[in-house]
Specification:
The complex is a heterodimer of chains A (483) and B (316).
Chain A lengths: L5 H17 L4 H20 L3 H20 L3 H38 L17 H16 L9 H9 L12 H9 L6 H34 L6 H32 L17 H7 L2 H12 L9 H19 L3 H19 L19 H22 L3 H11 L15 H19 L14 H18 L14
Helix pairs in contact in A: 1-2, 2-6, 3-4, 3-5, 3-6, 4-5, 6-7, 8-9, 8-16, 8-17, 9-14, 9-15, 11-12, 12-13, 13-14, 14-15
Chain B lengths: L1 H29 L6 H6 L5 E7 L2 H4 L4 H8 L3 E3 L7 H14 L3 E8 L27 H6 L6 H6 L1 H7 L6 H6 L6 H5 L19 H7 L4 H16 L3 E6 L5 H4 L7 H11 L3 E4 L10 E3 L2 E2 L1 H16 L7
Classes of the chains: A mainly alpha (483), B alpha/beta (316).
Amino acid sequence: MLFNSIDFAIFLPIVFILYWFVTNKNLKLQNFLIVAASYLFYGWWDWRFLSLILFSTVVDYTIGRKLRMEENQTKRKILLWTSILVNLGFLGFFKYYNFFLDNFITAFSFFGTEIKANSLNIILPVGISFYTFQTLSYTIDVYKRNLEPTKDFIAFSAFVSFFPQLVAGPIERATNLLPQFYKKRTFEYDKAVDGMRQILWGLFKKIVIADTCAEYANLIFNNSADYSGSTLVLGALFFTFQIYGDFSGYSDIAIGTSRLFGFNLKQNFAFPYFSRDLAEFWRRWHISLSTWFRDYLYIPLGGSRGGTWMKVRNTFIIFIVSGFWHGANWTFIIWGALNAIYFLPLMLTNNNRNNLETVAHGRLLPSIKEISLMLLTFSLTVFAWIFFRAESVSHALSIIGEIFSKSILSFQTSWTNGYITIFHIILVLFFVIIEWINRDYEFGLQRISNHTFSRKIVYFLIVFLILFTADYHSKQEFIYFQF
Amino acid sequence: MKAFIIKLVKLLLIFVGFFLIIGFYLEYQFEKDNSDKFTWLRNKENNNFDYAFIGSSRTMNMIDINLIDSVLSKKGINLGISGADFRTLYMILYTFLEIKNNKIGELYIQVDPFMLYKDSVYNNPRYDHYFYSYVNDENIYNSINDNNTSFVYRLFPIFKYVEFNSVYNLTHFIRSFSKVSKWDNTKGSWFFSSQLPFNPDANPDKTNHTKYLKFDNEDKAYLLKIIDLCSKFKVKTIFYGAPIYNYEKNFKFLYPNFREDMTLLSNKYGVDYINFMGQDYDKSFFKDMTHMNYKGSINFTELLIKARTHNNVYKK
């Protein structure tokens, strides 16, 4: 089920009413309702893959229980690795099997050995990368004794399958989300209103910004050979806003929906395009994944404690793995490596924690220096997104080659759509302004105005734009569903 | 909780009220739009035309009304719409004659196998939303494919403008304030400017084409309804087949008896049938296999004028 669908618009109020009016007296029943609603939400896409979620849930719940009772360190390790192998095994099979197979065949053929093997027609279960990491975090935390394993299977199932963030995050830690299923939730007016506002802003980001930018980004990237360097730069810019609007929009809807049900999820995006360096960007982009890799991969590898070589190695590992997590394609790996290259100079010169505060904190406008740093960081990010969006490495290189050619000076209008394109660009600017105003808060629409009337005008305008921009004749999925 | 729900319901009601009002305003404003072919036609009211052509893109893009008017000193209009099937043509003609009270002397109806495609382009109700304003009319209501929801659009126009926002978009909204339309100068025709490269020997995918190509009961019913409508409004009706590049070689196999079937039909209903489909035409006249460019369109229009003035010499 998509957040931006009529199905979800019907589903959400029904679950909300059942949750607060029918099952509110009984915590177990309320949690069970969340599990049932989550399975329905996921099964709406493909019910067959519910078995994977259920299997993952049972495995990690059982291993968590056993880890609590087991004192023998070797046996504990075996239990931990069983969970890791099961979860990553599923992920590896569904997401990476064909990639590894194709690359093995290519590698062997390079040395003159022909291997005959057929690729499998594997459907990637939506959200597998997200819930796999979520359940893994539980087992690792229990193994490290950072978390008491749960006895409540329903609560654990609800934690694994919690529908607002099941298919595209934020990837919640068991330490944050699981305890919330143990406590009776009480309805908080302010939290619910804030949740509604965040849902509205998420829908705006997805429908008005991401889907609109997607039209141009797809047109330009899919026909890149027909376009000049300047148009390709615009294509990359459109994709930059598309991916941000799409993914952070999903996170906003997920967090807002959770608030309606009395849950607090972690912030996943903190206005990353206003970052002054790449380190700040990565503290603000897909925070739940970055911190996951930091805590469960980077720190266990030694983090930045060792010598220079260790720092370089660990940085490359974390960024490349992060790239690979996004998809089984060399383009994602190069995107990750490129970000590592951006990040390393900052880390090696101990400048990776310079910009911890929000840009222009306490001021309306940034300084010239801040603007320059933001533009530089933004440009590096846009450049890296070319690899992320391109179909293949050669496709990305051909785009970059065209961008750095004389055609950068030739302006084309064939990709435009008259007034509509001008209007779309104005929308993106409006979006950037609203985000800038709210950069000290958790999401773009959190503090719009103290006047009720002007606030309602903004809401009305946003609803209007959502209604009149959405494409009701084709399903626009979220990009991160494929990851 | 109670306060939250009351506030939410209040806000929803205010929004719904506002959007309903906006819907009626858009209905009023978009009625004035005449920037695309459909809306331009919709704005024609109480006019008299000596003749008209109706059909798909091979009518809209291949017949020069200005040329015919100047040679024959007549007043004509091109009612052709890209990708229109007989059902859509019927609704266009019905709206034009019955609802908008226009008069036509002679109507040339394009008939060729390509109008029988049952694929997403030709049979898709992609033009139905233009007729939702007229669903109170029984004939329009019965002709709309998905007429279950069409009354909702009539009563609450906002739904129409939300659902079809890609058609009723900002460009059209801005254009609706202009009284000038590019279609006024061409009288409903629009030409492909250049000869695009195409491979004249390309053999169309037979399976793919024949899967869709079928003169079924619905097509026949709507073609007959067009003839009935013409008869009701005393419009002389003529079937015509538009030129196609190397039809005999490349396309005839798709529907070998089409010409014969049309001849039978035209004889049965007393309709003239002039066919330009099987003639030999120069490649330079075409933009692609089934569409002429401007040069070809002028040539074809001249042929039509000859056919009209020399007692249907191309009748087959």
